[in-house]
Each structure stands twice: as structure tokens, then as C-alpha cells.
Amino acid sequence: MFNIKGLRTSVGNRDFFNLYPPCTDTASAIQRLIDAGAEILGKSKLSSFAAREEPTESVDFQAPFNPRGDGYQSPAGSSSGSAAAVSSYNWLDFAIGSDNLGSDRVTQSASSSNGNPSLRVYGKPTKIFYPLEFMQKVSGEQKRLVDEFVRDLESTLGVKRTTLSLAKEWETSAPESLAKQGLQVYMQNAPTHAFFYDLYHNFDTFRDDFDAKYNKTPYVSPMLRWRWQIAQALTQDQREDAIERLKTFKGWFLDRVMRVDDYTSFVVFPIEEIAPKYRDEPPPSPTMPKGIGMLDIAPTLAAPELAIPGK
User: Fold this and answer.
1) Half-sphere exposure for 140 (CA within 13 Å, toward CB)
2) The overall pTM is greater than 0.85
């Protein structure tokens, strides 16, 4: 995903790797690290084209092994190699990944590594927001651990959580014409339409180059094929409408929920419902997510999210 001069980039796909020569330059994000003294040890495994890819779906390149537990649990995706590497080698200081819909956060949770994407704290937090919709998606031991973590935060910071319903906040503080629709209705397809459209069209040149050289379409994994088929039916207008809805949500959330001009605050919620997933277990059939979910919040707000693994 990140070009390094002299090395090939694969984006987790063998056809992409074989089509293009070694890179002639280094991605600016990586070059900044090199200029600051970082030593590049190698590149890690990425799920193909940064889409979800469980081990049974890893056709072109084998999925990395997750060192957690008995060593046979799924490393998740898409930045699975980065998270597995940090968890496996105590001499490795950090690894680079990308995250649009959970690629770093989910893999960190799976491998029990700490994720800190561009985190910067400005002063002592004065608000802890606890959204009920997301907390209701987990139960049992996971819910207990989340609540224990929140209680520790309250004690350490001297701040009590603010429990709220995003749906009710939307009804009372969103623009009237939008509030009547309901939050999840308004946001129904916005995250997926924007992401799927760009995921497909960012690789238009690759598909054209591959067809020109080999007179056929490149192989892609079933999960990516499903996403690309949906994206092919989306128009530029649908993509732009999705972006506008995301911008509206961002402005509303920052101004009316977090009130960033008044407070230094953060939101606590689980990344997903956690349960053991093993390498040999096929994932469920893909379904189109609806509305705004837990993994959509930080990317939509352009905000950092600190992923903290459980015990």
C-alpha cells in the first residue's frame, strides 16, 4: 500500500505485483520516517486491496499468523501483517498501516496490540461520551471490561461519563429537515457508497493496464469482487451525495455532540463484538452495512482513535 523505492508494491494482489516494476520513489509518509532516522525492516502482508480478507480468503498470499492465544486465531484485516508483526517481535518498535473502515483497529484488537493512529492530546479531557447504541452491541465479559475501563478513566481524570443516545441527540439537534428522517436513515448508505466507489475507481488504471497487457481481467478475491460489483453500479452523483452526508454528520457530531469548542472530550465505544475466530473458519457471507457504525466514527470525523486491547 505504501511505495518504497526499489521494491514492488503488491496491495496484496499477485497480478498487481507482477504487472508493475519496482517503485522509483518512496511514499512521502514513509520518507518522513526515514528522514527522522527510522530503519525500514521490510513490508508486511496486506489484505488484497485493503478489503476484508480472512485467512480462508487469502488466495494470492498466505495470511500472517496471529501470535495471540494458541497461534491459530485469525489476524483479521486489512493491515493484518502490521499488527501481527508488532505482536510477534518485541524488538519491532512500530509498523505502518492504513485504516478506513477498521483495517488497523480490528487487526490490533485481534492480535492484542496497541494502536495509536496519529494520536495527539490537547490538555486534560473534560468530557467522556458513552453512546448507548454502540454499547448495546456488546455484552457479557466484553461489556464488563469496557465499563471497567470507563470507570478507571472516570477515577483517573475526575470526570464522570456523559451517557447519550446518538439517535435522540440527532432528533433534537440536527437540522429539522434531516432530524425527521432519523440518523440511521439519513446515513444509511453514506459510509459504504463513498468507500466502495473510491475503492473501485482508484484501481481503474490497474485494470486497464492489466487488460492491455494480458487481454483479460485481473484476479481478485471473492470479498473484493463483491465490493467492486456494488461499486460498478454506483454513480459519481451517488458518491458525492454520500460525501455530503458524511460531512453533515461530521459537523453535527463535533459541534452538537462533542462540542469541541467548549470541551476537550473523547468518545468511548467497543470496536466490534469480540469472539475467537480461527484461521480455518470461513467468514460469513458479506452484507451491506447500513447507517453509521462503530468503525465509521473516527474516519468520518477525521479524528484519531486509540485502540486498546482487552485482557
Assistant:
1) 4
2) yes
